[in-house]
Amino acid sequence: MESWLEEEEAAITICNLEGIIVYMNERSRKAFTKYDDSGVTIGSSLIECHPEPARSKLLSMLKVPQTNVYTIEKRGIKKIIRQSPWYREGVFSGVTEISFEIPVEMAHHIRVESEGTEIA
User: Fold this and answer.
1) Which residues of 35-70 are buried (b: 16+ CB within 10 A; e: fewer)?
2) CATH number for the domain that contains residue 55
3) How many domains does the chain have?
């Protein structure tokens, strides 16, 4: 993996098609040890880290490539979670989970496209 991923502010966790963690960046490793003493690390089951109904959703995502995005609040910290398929040389290989903190109150902007212009 790219070295910049280690220093990324988002927690990045990647599992293979069996749900086994194959990559964790520094933030991911810290997130799992901060609240949980279970020893979750590369080689652990990401499936076992998720309670129902999240566990069933992850199992479904490992069978049929799909994206799942949601927010959570835990211990007063709000996060956005994005789980999406990852591919190796065009072959579905597992799921990435990217998690990062967001403000509890967050601005939401709606950008309206004018005729003849594009919105970035």
Assistant:
1) eeeeebeeebebbebbeeebeeebeebbeeeeeeee
2) 3.30.450.20
3) 1
